[in-house]
Design brief:
The protein is α+β, with helices and mostly antiparallel strands and 331 residues long. The protein is built from 9 helices and 11 strands. It has helices at 3-13, 63-83, 160-190, 197-209, 213-223, 241-250, 254-266, 286-293, 298-315; strands at 16-17, 59-60, 89-95, 106-109, 113-115, 124-129, 138-142, 229-231, 237-239, 316-318, 324-326. It has a 5-stranded mixed β-sheet. A two-stranded antiparallel sheet has the order 1-2. The longest helix is centred in the middle third of the chain and has 31 residues, at 160-190. The chain is elongated, with a radius of gyration of 35 Å.
Length: 331
């Protein structure tokens, strides 16, 4: 679960916004055991010391109490209907395909059709919404899947023309997938043991494109290539690394292309993440594996860099007044 998903779950299941409830939050008689929401200690605005990080002062932190009050409010709306001898159908505005655990004796969106008035068809029934912002709302619904009066307002039915269009699109997609697979299979059988120049350039360019902008910049620095800026269509300036690299790659010899491909693989290891910039590169990194394979002493190189940078730091130090001065040893 991501941080955003966790935040949404907390807001949905734990921190319930009182601004969205269907009943009066000042009503202390709705659920006498709980009292009014406006004075409840579980409301974030009534206990700022307990919820200092929550800016919304009308959040409800007790889902069980929220559910009980909604049910009590629904029963108040059902009471008059029961006295008239009606048994309202319980419905939810949540789509049936999105509900993980369904409440018993409750119909979800997609399982009923709304009716404007009572008696629109032989199957029209009175219903009451049992959850959400419209909990307690009394409406009329039709629950007959084959109702000729309301079927046009329930499930979306595609026209014969659209069905044919979808069939053609599905066929075109299947053709493309199968054709591309067969082209690749045929090409693999024709590939030579040694890559041709055109294939080598294609591989190098494609690999370079996949490195991303930051590694493009690092690679240009490694090779000392100029990052010339060009005008964009919206008036800004940008560096088209791919276009600049393409010209360089096509001018390389076969040996240079070999070295370029390996360098592309090693360049990402130049990145030092901000959270661990001072940590040594892992032994499993491509840069360290290659150093061992080519018998380079990475520890010795690191020690030399450390000595050089320490010497440079001791040679020139910033003065107390912000200007640089020589140390007494250097004098």
């Amino acid at each position: 679960m991501t941080v955003r998903q966790l935040r949404q779950w907390i807001e949905r299941e734990i921190h319930l916004d009182l601004k969205n409830v269907p009943f009066d939050t000042e009503d202390a008689n709705l659920l006498p055991a709980a009292g009014a929401c406006s004075t409840c200690p579980k409301r974030t605005g009534n206990n700022p010391l307990l919820f200092p990080e929550i800016k919304n002062r009308s959040l409800w932190t007790d889902p069980a109490c929220h559910h009980a009050k909604v049910q009590a409010f629904v029963q108040l709306r059902v009471g008059p209907l029961a006295k008239e001898g009606k048994q309202p159908v319980q419905i939810s505005e949540s789509p049936s395909w999105q509900v993980l655990s369904r409440a018993p004796n409750t119909l979800y969106e997609g399982q009923y059709r709304r009716a404007e008035t009572e008696g629109e068809c032989l199957h029209t029934q009175v219903a009451v919404v049992v959850d959400g912002r419209k909990a307690g709302t009394v409406i009329h619904v039709c629950t007959d899947e084959k109702c000729k009066t309301h079927c046009q307002f329930s499930h979306y039915e595609i026209s014969p023309q659209e069905r044919e269009q979808r069939r053609r699109l599905a066929l075109a997609i299947r053709v493309q997938k199968e054709a591309r697979s067969r082209i690749l299979k045929a090409l693999r059988q024709k590939l030579p043991a040694a890559l041709a120049r055109a294939d080598f350039e294609m591989v190098a360019l494609d690999y370079f494109r996949r490195l991303g902008h930051d590694n493009h910049h690092r690679l240009f620095q490694v090779y000392g290539w100029a990052e010339k800026k060009t005008k964009t269509s919206w008036g800004g300036n940008t560096v088209d690394h791919e276009k600049l690299a393409e010209a360089r790659i096509r001018a390389m010899t076969a040996a240079d292309l070999n070295r370029f491909m390996v360098t592309c693989t090693l360049v990402p290891d130049l990145y030092c993440p901000g959270y661990s910039s001072a940590e040594a590169l892992a032994k499993e990194a491509n840069l360290m594996r290659s150093a061992v394979r080519y018998r380079l002493n990475a520890s010795k190189i690191t020690a030399m860099v450390t000595a050089e940078l320490r010497a440079a730091r001791n040679k020139i130090r910033p003065g107390s007044n912000g200007r640089e001065r020589k140390t007494a040893k250097a004098r």
